[in-house]
Write a structure and sequence with these properties.
Length: 158
């Protein structure tokens, strides 16, 4: 029992450490979108209705933040899958069938927790005027903690 408790503590510590690194990477991607990508796209392509409506519009909602958030979460989840599989849960098998099933379950839960992340961030930013940094940290922290327990129980089965 004690070994099992130590194992879950070690896994959670590594998982949350990597989550913290992904939060930093997520922030950098969103800031890059906010500072460089969005101004360039909206200046160059903002006259095209599609880009204006689905990326450059800031009313009634800040679409460029939403798109940046979706991109950042997608990139960080791909990186985090490999960190979780090989380092946190120490799964060494690379069999195609097992890895494919893990990958599908992992990203199924990623979609679920991503909706949670983006929803919380969107609500905090747009309805409570919470700064990007705080809304992102709160949303991602809740999402990663939820995802740890889902991954441990259903994806990387011990």
């Amino acid at each position: 029992m004690e070994n099992s408790e130590n194992n879950i503590k070690q896994q959670m510590t590594l998982y949350l450490f990597f989550a913290f690194l992904m939060i930093i990477l997520n922030y950098l991607i969103q800031k890059l979108n906010q500072v460089l990508i969005a101004p360039w796209i909206c200046t160059s392509l903002g006259g095209i209705d599609f880009f204006h409506t689905f990326y450059c519009a800031i009313t009634p909602y800040n679409m460029r933040e939403l798109v940046g958030s979706i991109a950042a979460v997608g990139i960080t989840y791909i990186i985090k899958y490999f960190l979780d599989k090989f380092i946190v849960f120490q799964k060494k098998q690379l069999k195609m069938k097992e890895t494919s099933i893990e990958f599908l379950k992992y990203f199924g839960f990623a979609i679920l927790t991503t909706a949670l992340n983006i929803g919380i961030q969107f609500l905090l930013t747009n309805f409570f005027s919470t700064p990007l940094e705080l809304s992102m940290a709160v949303a991602l922290s809740i999402g990663y903690l939820t995802k740890f327990f889902l991954d441990r129980k259903y994806v990387f089965i011990q």
